[in-house]
């Protein structure tokens, strides 16, 4: 039952917001009593914390699956962006923006994990792109990893509208790719930009 509550709460938090969803809403949606939820979670903050941990785990499992498909480096980044778009498409307000505003301590814990895992994904993508001849071989991988991470998360945590955040993310992805790309990389980027998912 605990896992079912976390799964349902995660879904509701992403779609309707961490602040607006109450324990009553979750109980009502699951056709259980609020007392049942409190049996496993003594307050909403603990449920939010466990839900964000689940979302984090699911996101990185999907990213690992995308990476395992062995797309070229540029296509891989567009596939990861598509996954985020599909995952958060029901949200009006950016989930990361909400979390930072209403649950700053939980947000800090989530971000500490994200820094490590995202930096690893971004670094591997850059190294892959260099090997494939899509990114220039003379770039400083550490710096470009940091630049991309800083831009992406700055957009996510400061943009209230999820739609606006996703539009910004596409522009950041284009900016990031153009800054590293070889002529072959530019051709690949242009191909993906012809049918962007906005």
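Q: What amino acid sequence fits the structure above?
A:
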């Amino acid at each position: 039952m605990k896992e079912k509550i976390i799964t349902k709460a995660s879904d509701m938090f992403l779609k309707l917001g961490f602040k607006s969803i109450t324990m009553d809403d979750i109980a009502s949606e699951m056709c259980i009593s609020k007392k049942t939820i409190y049996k496993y979670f003594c307050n909403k903050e603990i449920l939010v914390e466990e839900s964000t941990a689940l979302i984090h785990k699911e996101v990185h499992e999907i990213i690992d699956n995308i990476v395992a498909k062995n797309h070229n480096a540029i296509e891989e980044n567009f596939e990861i962006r598509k996954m985020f778009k599909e995952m958060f498409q029901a949200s009006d307000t950016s989930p990361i923006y909400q979390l930072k505003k209403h649950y700053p301590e939980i947000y800090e814990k989530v971000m500490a994990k994200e820094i490590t895992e995202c930096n690893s994904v971004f670094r591997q993508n850059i190294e892959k792109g260099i090997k494939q001849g899509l990114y220039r071989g003379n770039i400083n991988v550490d710096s470009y990893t940091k630049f991309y991470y800083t831009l992406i998360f700055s957009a996510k945590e400061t943009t209230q509208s999820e739609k606006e955040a996703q539009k910004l993310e596409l522009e950041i992805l284009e900016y990031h790719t153009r800054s590293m790309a070889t002529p072959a990389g530019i051709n690949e980027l242009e191909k993906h930009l012809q049918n962007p998912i906005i």
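Q: And what stands out in the fold?
A: The domain at 51-193 is CATH 1.10.357.10 (Tetracycline Repressor; domain 2).
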